[in-house]
Amino acid sequence: MKRLLLPSPLHKRRYRALGILGSGLILLVAALVAALILANIVAAQDDLDFGDAPDPTYPTTAANNGASHVIIPGFSLGPSIDAEPEGNASVNADGDDTTGTDDEDGVTFQSIMIPGMPACINVNLVNTASMANPSLDAWIDFNSDGFWDPVAEHLWGGASQPLAAGSNILCFTVPPNTSRGYTYARFRLSDGGGAPPTGPGSTPGEVEDYRIYIEFTKWEQPPQKRDPHDICYWGWDEISVYGDGENGNPGYPIIADDWKCEDDRPVTDIHWWGSYDGWYDNDPPYEPPPARYRPIQFHIGIWKDVPANPPGEPFSHPAELIHEWIVNYADLHERYAGCDYYSGTMQTPDTCFYYDFEIPREDWFYQNPEEETVYWISISAIYQNNQPPQQYLWGWKTRKPEWNDDAVRIFTPDAPRVGDPYVNGEPIETQEEGSWDTSFVLTSLPTEPRPPLVNIEITNTTTAKLSWQHILKDIYNAPVTINRYDVYRDTKPYQGASATLLTTIDGPFSPGDIVHLDAGAVGSSSQNYYYYVQAAVSDRYGGDVRSQLSNHVGEFDFTLVPGSS
Question: Which string of DSSP letters, residue by residue, matches 285-302?
Fold first, then answer.
């Protein structure tokens, strides 16, 4: 990397000596010197930083007018930055990570991306170079059409965001009509802002591209603010502790809330919000021995439903526990999410935290909406030796009702396991505002894609051409983002995936695409070829989720001998 050369003190004295020629000449000379310095750096291609989103649909390489910035040491998103002579485009937007230094360390997504809901990012700025106006511009391809609209998909209404050295929490609203599944984001750091999503930057800076996931929700009731201008979420943390009863007497209850299943996609992730009663700090409660303020685990349960108003049932509540997870605290990615406050019970706000439980694939929760439509979810803290602390107890964030009846406090059983029935409890209500629910979101990752329907055409009697409509849905009719198509060819029909892999076709693909492949020379009179196609998407673990094989298509050659029949 070439070193940036700045004017020496001797140069500065010379500039002052030119004062007799007028301030206009001084400014002109200074501007020329600065321009020459910047031009020298731009000319050295190894001093540029590019993005790595898939090219050419997202302009990444210099040949396609990709975004780039001159590098100045001490001015970057995150502590790492490296130079490259060209944009290293890749499907996972990680090409820059695999060459040189993994320098995409400046932007961390603080919340899941749900259409119509707020989302926050943490932008880490390094500015030991003392640039005057560090600014961030960012774009997300919300409609997944393969490029960033310079205006409509420019975050914060197109306004560059000023950055301070260190951590910067920036929030925006995901548009309600956002396409679900994987898409791409671009972040550009510059001195002064105003950068477009493409082209060389006019100031030093950095480009970071990310592949992100827009959640497909099964159920959503995130925390709410009473007024859009409020700082804190409205509501309190309802204490929920697992295994706290003694000899059948209720201690702290377990909290549960109902939700409606409207399709047969599995629950693959659970997200919720909570607080530590009386705690107001951006970090969770500290752990001075012997106090253990943080839970060691959480118990999450799925229950069947007892509706309101059967004989002797004044309110709806859970029936029996049918599925459960016990999750280590360290696996829930607890992070700061703001504050919550309720004037009816709280003197001061508490800090609100956000939790993600990524359910292992083998333990996803599947439902049959033809049999059950209403379920309950319970979330409760497990403490060391089942002994909750004397202060800062964990509670589930409340909010005004989303649907159906109140959330409930379960007093018995206090430590339920699968098969245990609900015995007694009460609805969560306040005298001032009546019914209350809790804050959680259930989401579903893409499952198996639908297989493509393949057509074959023989052109000029020598070449087989395959084509199929790009796949947009999984087998549950949820959107998926196909990473690639694998094409197989064999000499025997119906061998399926044991056939020879002919080629792969990598994305990104756009809605409405017809995928074409020149499959090469056809067979001979003694040998015929058969083709199959399989679609693949990526799961969160970096593995493949594959479709069933497509229909089998083949080409057949015949030798006709004169006089034969």
Answer: PP--TT---S-SEEEEEE
